[in-house]
Amino acid sequence: RCAGARPPQAAARAVFLHAAPVDQLHRRLKFHGDLAAGRLLGQLLAEGLAGAARPQALVPLPLHRSRLRQRGYDQALELARPLARALRLPLLDGRLARGRATAPQSRLDAAARRRNVRGAFEILAGPSLPAHLALFDDVMTTGATLQEAALALRRAGVQRVDLWVLARA
Fold first, then answer.
1. Which of 62, 68, 148, 149 qualifies as a FRET site for 133, CA 20 to 30 Å off?
2. What is the pLDDT of residues 60-93, one digit of tens each?
3. What is the pLDDT of residue 120?
4. What pLDDT is attached to residue 1?
């Protein structure tokens, strides 16, 4: 099925496997508010993505506003900030939005993950988006969330979307 369908992204790059010690640092950032762990991971990301094809801007995958209220911060944005700064890329925060709350993906199988995020992303009004973007998230498991967000960006006229992640599960 994957070979017959053209994915919305041009490329995907994961800097690490989601294994020790990266998974431990990631959990400290995501669930315990350890922003120092996030800064360290951001530096490691910049080193790992220094040779990647250079997009015109970096777009962090957003949390829904209800999840953001619960957590108090967006871990993808906290990782994307130092990454964008180190690679001298504009950070387009606030153009891609999660228009509806979705169930946590970690509790779902692959098919349920795809259904869960279908149509969940929207592009907010603003200037034209660049032709080449890197969409960033912390961890990619099945890729369903990132692919759905990439599809929204492509529908908005972005010609090339690369997926960049800290780690691949």
1. 68
2. 999 888 888 888 889 999 999 999 999 999 999 9
3. 86
4. 54
CA neighbours closer than 13 Å in the CB half-sphere of residue 117? 27
Q: Do residues 108 and 97 touch, judged by C-beta distance below 8 A?
A: no
Provide the domain limits for residue 130. 11-168
Which of 60, 127, 71 lies closest to 98 in space, CA to CA? 60
- Integer Cα distance of 42 and 103 in angstroms: 27
Has residue 6 been placed in a domain? no
What 3-state DSSP class applies to 77?
helix
pTM, whole model, 2 decimals? 0.91
Work out the mean pLDDT of the chain and round it to a whole number: 91
Cα separation, 36 vs 28, in Å, equals 9
Residue 121, token pair as written in the block: 């992303």
Q: Cβ of 112: how many Cβ atoms within 10 Å?
A: 14
CA 25 remoteness from chain centre: 17
Structure-block tokens of residue 71: 């957590």
Instruction: Establish if 3 belongs to a structural domain.
Output: no
How does DSSP assign 13-73, residue by residue? EEEEES-TTHHHHHHHHHHH--HHHHHHHHHHHHHHHTTS---SEEEEPPPPHHHHHHHSS
